[in-house]
Every structure is written in structure tokens, then in C-alpha cells.
Amino acid sequence: MPPPTGHRDGDAVQASKRERGRVAQREYRKRHASRFQNLQEENQRLKNAIQKISQVASSTERRGQDLEDAISEAVSIAGIQVNDQSPAEETSSSQDSELVSLVDPPPIREILSEQRTSTNQSETESESLSQGSQSSLTLDRQIWLDTDRLVRIYDAPSDVLPFLGDGLFTIAGCLYWACTYYAITLWKKMKNIEEPELSDQSRFDRMFNHSKHLVDRDFLMSIAQARLDFRKKGYIDRIHLEEYHAENEAMGEVHTLLQQEYADKNETLQWWRKPQEVETYIKQHLTADELVELQQILQAAVVQPPVPVGPVGQPDIAYTPNYDSYVARVKRRQETETLDRTLPTGFPEKLVSDLVWDGRDLAKSYDWDYYLTEDDLKELDEGLRSFKALDVPLGQISQETFVLPKLHDTLRAISREIHQGHGFKVVRGVPVDKYTREENIIIYAGLASHIAPVRGRQDHLWQGKPADVVISHIKDISREVDASRIGAPAYTAEKQVFHTDAGDVIALFALGEAAEGGQSYLSSSWHVYNELAATRPDLVRTLAEPWASDEFGRAGKRYTLRPLVHHQPATAKAPERLIIQYARRQFTGYWGLPRSSDIPPITEAQAEALDTLHFLAEKYAASLNFHKGDIQFVNNLSIFHARGGFKDSSEKQRHLVRLWLRDPELAWETPEVLQPRDTEQ
């Protein structure tokens, strides 16, 4: 049988998929025309909203003036008052340059220590916010985080991620983070410190030319105090690791000068000291209706992933399962339908095997970790050097070209565990940082070839040209690629629900791990089947019937009819087996790849079956502590896998490398209905 193959949704998106995403986006905008106008109209409404706040602020005294100035700064950063440029040109410039000029800046080390706080600082901090400031924020924090049309600034450093999670990141915070970085660069220019120009120096120059706040000592002092306040409240718990030349002189001298200036005037800074003060002030000067109106206006500028559009009659079901909707559907069907309480002919009432396990207590009876020993690592290093000495293409990595004399037997035992035991194993301890990216891939493919030597094709194209692509990089690309081009959750930071892939064995190598989250989950599909067979045999029948699996235009196909569960009776050569193969997004759509509108909708029974598979898999899942340098091998024919949502940082990014593998010696028989999937992809 040809090697198992599949398709990778990622950088190389076929033209038909892109068009489908564009159609979905157009339909989405039509349904929400009252809130999502064209970009020029949105910008105009946003200008009006900011102007309204400015007018309110201008009617007050000192604090109002500060707010007015700050909002003016937001207007400048948003590009609303750029000279000699029409709104249409602003839109084009902003979009075209986003991935080029708006790159992450060098990290800035926290240099304002608590010891630099003046005696007046404690008095300032002790002053409570104005009445009502302690109430919860009303405006959605995503409004203030919009980086496309409101305040286009650099991302906040990783040490404030907990602060963002608290939902207090307002316009004040946006301006603060921007100016913390810009202030240092400004000071460098003022002091004429000789240092190579930054790659984005032209952007800094434009900023300085129209931003009075960047040369306003009042504002610089206030943001310095904000930094200290955030740090003392625990929102910033560590300094940046990399030093930025001249920063100590820059912020330190600014802090000292401004502190003295305010001491001479017997004044203390009270505005901009805490981000929530901005919202508190707005709430004091707008009516409840005006606040709602402002929220609606600003929300129209928040970037949202496109909502999948399905065929007529499609049940109310999304890629991310909703438990309340699931429970309601179960109740409704049981009350209104007559459900068949018998299993399909020949299907077992119960599967008995090591492949049947409950992840909640599996660790008590099964050790799924294999830690590479020093001898193993030496052998892998020798295998790497020997392969490189051959000077052959990477596609020729095999047991013969990547020889592991002693480790081979251990890896073959792991393959038997994957095919005949519990179905998965984690090989831990590859020293990723010791090697180059290419060397890590060679070691990964070489080691994997001793577990399952056949690598399956995951894509037909490489850099737009026909190719047999057998490796896939799994990481969050949602910040670099438009949402309409992302058709699979693997390439976002969102939660990935339980599913299966296209290969016999799924291998994942962690080149990097996330700063937060991204847990890997496995669940025995055989255990899930046993519970369904005992409690909901009607859903087993539903899973065994043909489903219209969306092909999203791949290879000219609209959809393929196939069941999700496949029963294989015992033979003289193989025991009884059951295979569940499905990917939820093929029935619900996802982001830029909605379920096609010209194919049959799924039924209510199928919608319930999808949710039941997920929630049972989630209930009985095992959580793997998957770290950098680990390789996970999973029997894709008997195990569901999922991933938790995650957050990357400038220091840590989740980056997995995927292989689809097959071991001809131990491989399970591929159901006939799945063979076209293997050969056509």
C-alpha cells in the first residue's frame, strides 16, 4: 500500500481555498453591515468617537486637558491626522506595511528600580482613584488592544502578560508601552549617542515629528510612574534579559529631572498613573447610552476571525464545542426522536485491549516516557555526523543512512508499544539547542525512521511548486497571515479539539514550547467506543453511516462520503480492531475555511455524535507534559489527540514539527474506504 498521505493547511493555500475564504468573509460582512462597513467608514466613525471624547475632556480643567492631550496622541498613533494623505491611502499604507515595518522591537530591560522612587511617590500611590474607579471595567478590553485601526503599537513585553490577562489594558496602557520604548530612542537622539540606526528608524522619526508627548516631560514622568506602579502591584515580576544600550542613562535621567521639576512645583502626578483611570474618567463624563454607543463604535474596529458559513440546514454547531448546546441537543433528540438501541451488525459490545485506557489514572499503570541516555545521545550525534558525511538529500534519511546500532532495538520496542500496546510513547531529551535547525530535523527523521520508516506526504506544494512535502511545522501564524487564509486550528494559538490526522502514526517534535499553555492531550478512542456502545448505541450507528466530509475543493472534489468508525473483525493474522477517523473542522468549518455551502449539511444526530466524541475524549484524556526536545509518537488509528490554547512570548514560542508515519512490519490494515484518502492526498 502506498504510504499514508495527507494535506497540510498552512502557508501554501490553494487558490480555491483562498477564494472560498474570501466568499465567506463577504457573506459575513453582509450579515453584519450595520457594524462592519468598509474600512474608510469604520475609520471615520472611530475618528468621530475619539473627537467626542476629546470634546468632553476639553470642557474640564487640568485632568481633562491631560486626557485630551492623551487622546490626541492616540489619534496621531492611529494615523488619523497624517498630513497629505487621504483616508484611502492611509488604509492601504497601514495594511501593506503591517508585516514589514511593524516588527517586534528589541526587549527593553526594566531599569526604573523601586529605589529610584521619590518620597512623593508613596503619597501619590496612596491617593485612591476618584469615586467609582474601583468598579469593574465596562468597556471590552479588546477595544483597547486593537492594533490595526486604533493604536498601532508594538506588543507589550512578556513580563506583563498577567497584566493583560486581568483585562486592564486600556488606551493609557497602549500609549505607555509605546512611549516606554520610544522615550529611550528619543533620549538617544537627544544625547547624540553613536549607535547604528535601528531598522525602523524612519518610523521613530515620523513619530517624533508629530508627537508632542514624546518630548513632554510631564508625560514621560507619568509613564515612568506607571511602570513603577505596575511593578509594585506584581503585574511585572521580572526584568528583561537583554540589555538595551544607554537605557539606564535615558530613563534614569528623565526620571530624576522630572521628579525634581514636580517637587519644585509642589505637585504630584495623578493622571495616567493607572490605566483604569482613563476608563473611569470616560465613564464619569458619558451617559450609559453614550458609553454603549462608544463601545459599539470601537468594537467595529476590532479584528474578528471570519465566522464559518455552512450549507442551508446546517445545525447550530461550531468548531469549538459548546457544552450547553450539546446538552440541549441531547435532551431535544431524546424527547422528540425514537433512537435505535442496537449496535450495527458485527460491532462488538466491548473492546478488550491495552489500547482501552482511562487517561485519568493511566500513569499509575503505564510509564509512557522514554528518556534518552547519554549513550543514546552519543549514538544520535554519531548518526547525524555519518549522515551529513554522505552528502545526500534529506529525503534519503532512513535506517540504513542514519544508523543506530544499539538504540535501534529500543526504538523497535517503542513501535510495538505503539501498534500493539497502549498506543503511544514520548521520547524525551533531544538537546535542541545544541544543533542547528536542519540538524534537529535530521536527528528527528533519523530516530523516527527506526520506529516507522515510511513518511507520508502532507502537502503537494513547496513554495508554490509541485513537491512531496513530508514534514509540517505546527506553530501560530495568525499574526502574520490573514485569518481568511487559515483553515486549520493547528496554525493558530487557539484550542484544538480532539481529532485524528491522516497517518498511521503521528510524530510531533517540540523545537520550542509556549510561554503559557499548549498542553498536549491524548484519549483512547477504544475507551470512548466502549462507553458509546454501552450507553448510546444509536450514536455508534450514526458514526458508522456515510458522512459528507468536506474536501474544501481539494483535488477538484466538493466532498467525500465515508463513515467515521470502521470495524475490522478478527482474522488469522490480526485481532479485532476498531478505527475512528475524523477531523471536526471537515463538518463544521474553521475560520477562513468554512464548511462549503454547496454540499449536504450534517444532521442533528451527526452534530450530537461530534460533540459526544469530543466530550467523552476530553473526560478520559491523559495530559502529557510536552517540553522542548520531546518527541511524541501516537497511534492515530486508536487515539484521539488535542491541544490546549497557548500564549507565545518573545522568549518562548511553541513550534512543533510533524511527521505522518507508517511501519510496514507492524501496520494495521487500512480500511478500504480510507485508502483513497491516503493515495490522493
Automatic annotation (TrEMBL):
Q: Which domain of life is it from?
A: Eukaryota
Residue ranges spanning the membrane: these are none
**Which segments show compositional bias classed as Basic and acidic residues?**
1-27
Give the matching InterPro entries.
AlphaKG_dependent_hydroxylases, TauD-like_sf, TauD/TfdA-like
Q: Name one Pfam family in it.
A: TauD
Is Oxidoreductase set as a keyword in this record?
yes
Q: What residue spans carry the region label Disordered?
A: 1-39, 81-102, 114-134
This chain belongs to the protein called: TauD/TfdA-like domain-containing protein
Native organism: Cylindrodendrum hubeiense
